[in-house]
Amino acid sequence: IAGLAALGTQHDYIIMFLAHAQALAGAIEDALETISQILQPNRSDANLSWPEALRLRGELQTKQGHREPAEADFRTALTLARSMDAKAWELRATTSLARLLRDTGRRDEARTMLAEIYNWFTEGFDTADLKEAKALLEELGSAGVRLA
């Protein structure tokens, strides 16, 4: 992995893929350590991949039962994605946050924020991310939501 650092941002996506694989194998601590390679505050290229890296770290923290830091990561990922006008990252971060909000009894907040980003999309409803968001919206009760 160290040899891939010259690839810059592309390197980050390989790191995220590795962290995801580690998490699937149950090695959550290893995955958190891996994802921390991306979230270094002194990196000049950090902003491009940070929304997804923060979302992934939030998912890992959720698996450990650390809901407060997970929520903070999801909200930061969401803020960064919005500042970049990166709607795909925004959808992913919002879906993760909405799932956490649902699990902590904040279903109305979850539904409202997820419906807002879901309704922004006009196509691509067969993609995994939009299918996941739609399923969560249906579970939360989709009043006032246009579900494609």
CATH superfamily: Tetratricopeptide repeat domain
Q: DSSP strand (E) fraction? A: under 5%
Assign a percent range to the helix content: 55-70%
- Which stretches are poorly predicted, pLDDT < 50 over at least 5 residues? none
Quote the distance from N terminus to C terminus: 41 Å
Whole-number radius of gyration?
Answer: 16 Å
The third-level CATH topology is Serine Threonine Protein Phosphatase 5, Tetratricopeptide repeat
Average pLDDT: 90
From the helix content, strand content and strand pairing, which structural class follows?
mainly alpha
Following the backbone from N to C, one meets helices and strands in this order, namely HHHHHHH
Shape: globular
Oligomer: single chain
Q: Number of helix segments?
A: 7
Number of separate domains:
1
Number of strands: 0
Main pleated sheet: none
Structure write-up:
The chain has 148 residues and is mainly α. It has a single domain, classed as Serine Threonine Protein Phosphatase 5, Tetratricopeptide repeat. It has 7 helices and no strands. α1 runs parallel beside α3, α5 runs antiparallel to α6 and α5 packs parallel to α7. The longest helix has 17 residues. The radius of gyration is 16 Å and the shape is globular.
SSE inventory with pairings:
Blueprint (H helix, E strand, L loop, with lengths): L8 H16 L3 H9 L13 H14 L3 H17 L3 H17 L3 H12 L9 H13 L8
Helix pairs in contact: 1-2, 1-3, 2-3, 3-4, 3-5, 4-5, 5-6, 5-7, 6-7
